[in-house]
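HUMAN: Would you supply a protein with fold tokens?

ASSISTANT:
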Amino acid sequence: MWFRLKQLLFPNALIPEHFKHKHWPQIRFLAIDLELTSLDVTDANILSIGWVEGQANTIALESCYYNVITTNASLNQSPIIHGLVDDQVAQGEPVQNALQALKSFAETHVWVFHNTDLDMSVLNKVFTKLDISLPKVVTLDTLRIALYQIRKSDNVPAPNAATLTSCRQRHNLPLAPAHNALDDAVATMELAFAQLNQLDAKGQEPLSALTSTGALRVYEASTE
């Protein structure tokens, strides 16, 4: 409870010192995307995970990571939405292997999502279930930046204005492949760089300045 209250009242106080005063071009980012069995956090299982590193408007394609995750949960609409079928999932990677690899980026990178609340809630749930300790994680949400920019221009967001596709279109980014976790991670990183350039083209503001957008948040295991 105190962590959440502190996040609300003193968001900058939670940002680790090694990130707080750096300008965004100095920050190492990790864009992450999850494909899930459900959008309900309590029922959601991870079907696949993808991520890619980036810094200073450059995406490190050699850092791309993608794995299908094995699960016994019902795939629901996943074969239609994500193109993943039972045989692929059965041969997938155990989720703990993927999360151990992801954990190694917790203290060195700012994690970028398009809908941090959903993905971090699921990750937090799975980390806790597997008894994997997760250090404090700094996250940046491209969806929240988009909503901030729309509202700042005195517009009311349209129903689909904050989808990844719509956000990319507003920044004149090309149409990106959808429903593959790695493709979406790369698309999210591209969007993040476009948004950051629009907010601070010269890269002179400290990372902590992004708390004003509502998009920069700090997560601790089992606090959300």
Remarks:
- The mean pLDDT is 87.
- The first helix runs from residue 2 to 9.
